[in-house]
Amino acid sequence: MIYSMTGYASATGELNGFTWIWDMRSVNARGLDIRLRLPDGLDGVEETLRNALKKKIARGNVSVTLRVSHPDDDGQYAVNPERLGQAVSHLLSIASEAEMRGLAVAPVSAADIAQLRGVIEMRAADADSRAPLIEALKEQIPALIDAFIASRLEEGQALSGVMSGQVDQVETLVGQAEALLDDRSQAQAEGLRTALARIMDATEGADPDRVSQELALIAVKTDVREELDRLRAHVAVARSHLSAGDPAGRKLDFLMQEFNREANTLCSKAQFNELTRVGLDLKHVIDQMREQVQNVE
What is the DSSP string of 205-223? Predict the structure, then answer.
């Protein structure tokens, strides 16, 4: 059961004249990166949401936006003079320091300042009316995350189907490579006999037994059965990860490196056109799998 790092969910609600919209989405990331954009004055909602996400999601860049509105918004929001003064003071300090260092600073508009956290906030007098809203938002968080995870699972099932097919292709190609080994061995033996005869004709006093040993050693070094055995083992591990219930993205990413290493070695040791072709096909399928793995949680 594979989960994708790509997902989306939304939810709406209404209570005591308040209306709200949740928007939750995620994309690929090396770890878990949670970015929240929530209105001020909703004490406890951010902490509840962040903790709930950490318990349910292992990887992904997760962005959550909450928009809350009320028919009397004009009367419920006001400028916080203290925060405004702090914001302007900080901006002036930055501009002054930048000017001293010869750096250009783009003009800051009033709208930019208004968007800074805490500059515009709900009136303190409305705290009592916000309490039921805060509880309603907290209660909605589990269902929102469940819908979000369901979307990641649906995408993950599609990924799992694609990757399972690619693993099957790898297994098929390994079988094709194994079927070529007898013909390859015959071709190698003929090549070694020809090389031995050429060396004996061109070298006086060469020890036939010693030359034969060296050529046999070359044949051992170019044997690819070990690589094919490891590829089959990797196929079994890949299937196990694809059917596991825990996040497998990092495990699969490492496994793709192992797949690629064996395919590279197979190509470098092939010395047989048909086997080289199979090795290149293996590398192509493995590259496709690596692209898919980047989406797996």
Answer: T--HHHHHHHHHHHHHHT-
